[in-house]
Amino acid sequence: MFFAIIGTDGPRGQTLRPSLREAHLARIDALAAEGRLVLAGPFGDGSGSLIVMAADSLDEARAFAEDDPYVTGGVFQAIDVRPFVKVRPAP
Question: Is the pLDDT of residue 91 over 70?
Fold first, then answer.
């Protein structure tokens, strides 16, 4: 199953992001190495980020999101984790 993780930056998100970026990207790279990363990146308007990942359950995807350095370090003021259906390109 796929899940979309939407992180919304808090008021200090842009200030805190650089110091936490390396740890955040290490977790994303680990997902990629496991073959579970569909895509990831920040929104062009600076409002937050999107990660689409494979996980066995919504709880697993939420746990991944909640442990992210951007969450624990205060970059994101909110996260939303939703089931995601990938249509194209075909899985």
Answer: no
